[in-house]
Amino acid sequence: MPNIYDNYGILEALYDASPLEAFTNAGQVIDHGAFPEQFAKELYAKYPDIGKRTDRSIADMAINYAGGYDWGVRDQIDPQAARDMGKAYQFKDYLFGDDARKHDSEQDYLENLAGVEAGISSRGSRMPMNDLLEVAYQYALQKQGQK
Fold it and tell me: What is the DSSP string of the chain?
């Protein structure tokens, strides 16, 4: 499978970062910025044996998915901008990372994107946190091949 960042450059990343969308929805950006940490706290409380968040761990995949969901479900954010912003966000790790970080950033984006798509399809009826914890955890188990 080709690398998702092949032929993806800094100018495309700047465009995909959608600065106007972010500026116009600054409150959403701020709220979303706090979401992954809150989600992680609740994930560790619900699944105490999940282990720490490290690259490619169950916790990492679940948090990436849930973060994407949180961004995608927000009605104020244009759906395509939500998709593109995740790609641009992960590109910085890809750009400055070694081969392992490059692989991780690609996978992080795919996990974000899966969550964004689920969020977009849930617009108007955001799932409760407890349900999102379960869905994200199951997604991560399935992606890691444990389910």
Answer: ---TTTT--HHHHHHHT-HHHHHHTHHHHHHHHHHHHHHHHHHHHH-TTS----TTSHHHHHHHHHHHHHHHT-TTS-HHHHHHHHHHHHHHHHHH--HHHHHHHHHHHHHHHHHHHHHHHTTTSPPPHHHHHHHHHHHHHHHHT--
Residue 121 within any structural domain of the chain: yes
Note the pLDDT tens digit of each residue in 98-123: 888 888 999 999 999 999 999 999 99
Q: How many domains does the chain have?
A: 1
Global pTM value: 0.94
Domain that includes residue 54, residue range: 10-144
